[in-house]
Amino acid sequence: MTQAIATAPPTPCVAPKSALLRRRLMPLWVATFLQGVGFWVPVEKLFMSGIGFDAATIGVMAAAYAALVPVMEVLSGVLADRWSRRGVLMVAGVALLLSVFIGAISQNVVTYIVAALILGIYFAMYSGTVEAVVYDVVLEETGDGAEYERRIGWVRFVESVALVGSALAGGWIAAALSPRATYFLTLPFAALYLVALSRFCEPRLHRTTERTSLRDHLVVTYRAITDRGRLVPIAAATVMSAMILQAMYEFGPLWLVTLKAEAGYYGPFWALLVGMIGVGGLLASRLHLERPLSVAIVVLAMLAACLTMTTSRSLAALTAAMVALTLALVVIGIHLSQLMHDAVPSTIRTGVASGISAVSWLLFTPFALVFGAVSKYAGVYVSGWMITGAVALAGAALIWVQRHAVAVR
Q: Where are the transmembrane segments (predicted)?
């Protein structure tokens, strides 16, 4: 009797029979938009400098939550695969709400680092989980994962609309009221995220097989990452591109601080940067990164952007370079996500994604510490060469993925 229950097909979601894939994903799109509203994000570095942060302590803060995230990533992956993916996303929402509130009331470096650590829990619970949810919904509704790259692209687009809109509004709010007010005004949107997510019909594919022990589950997840020849280059490229993208979001505004950009510039700058999440989401399925020429063009464009970041003193040129680099990294990330999900079963999908993400955070921890220290004592233009070196490695990994895929065929 127990075996029959364990292997029974999943109970279908209670939804109209005419519901299409888009309708199934609609609550997730709404929730994604709401969690993307962060009025405080574009002026965060401005706010932090006002309560005692400098380049070195920003690096310490980034390294602190980067050290926490890998542990939470592994936990979130196991919870999502063995318990509930929607439940893990709800936990992420609670962490986001708490982090923004503590940030809003912070008066010193230590308190704000606590807020950053809780934000790290949000990142760990959210990243990887939402991709696995989208892939499984596509698989349940269509029978294969061919639509994933386009559907996750639309999720990224919705997220970027929220990020861009709130970035522009955040700069205006900070100028009209104060940077601190941007935190308080973000709180209602974080709360509504939880409401919207409660309406999402969770996929059940990861529950269709017999439940194994936690130890066996972890062993299978680990072996999926390390033993599958196809997954190793994908994991390497994913780790490098994710680390660089995080560095861009964390340290990109330091170039503006160095060039003494006006406060009003931060909002549009951040809006352009996060807007590339949406543009990249729409372009990812159209750039065909399985082709050698496409890979070569993307890698050369990234290196050109890095060269600009290490030499130019023009705000316009620097902004264009950072936007181009961010766009390329988003496109690469979506392409690699498609390849990764194609390569693993649903029962360990979130665990594998979270494990790979955890490695990127582990790599980002020393990177952030060194980058912050070099920026403080030698300037951000010198530390920018660290990003250039990382991009070169990411490009090599992407070429490895493409060539390995050709060899497999």
A: 25-43, 55-75, 87-106, 112-134, 154-175, 181-201, 231-249, 269-285, 292-310, 316-336, 348-374, 380-401
On whether both 188 and 227 belong to a single domain, the answer is: no
Average pLDDT estimate for 217-233: 63
Q: Residue 235, CB half-sphere, CA atoms under 13 Å: how many?
A: 22
Question: Is residue 271 in a domain?
Answer: yes
- pTM above 0.70? yes
> Could you tell me if 270 and 180 lie in one domain?
no
Contacts of 71 (CB under 8 A, 6+ apart): 124, 358
Reduced to 3 states (helix: H, G, I; strand: E, B; else coil), residue 202 is: coil
**d(C-alpha 126, C-alpha 360), whole Å:** 15
* Residue 221 CB-density burial (10 A; 0-12 exposed, 13-18 middle, 19+ buried): buried
Q: Which domain holds residue 69?
A: 18-204
Of 213, 275, 229, give the one whose Cα is nearest residue 249: 275
Q: Pick the most confident of 18-27, 162-171, 258-267.
A: 162-171
pLDDT of residue 312 exceeding 80, the answer is: yes
Q: Do 132 and 278 share a structural domain?
A: no
Q: Computed over its alpha carbons, how large is the radius of gyration of the chain? A: 21
Alpha-carbon gap, residue 27 to 207, rounded angstroms: 22
CATH number at residue 272: 1.20.1250.20
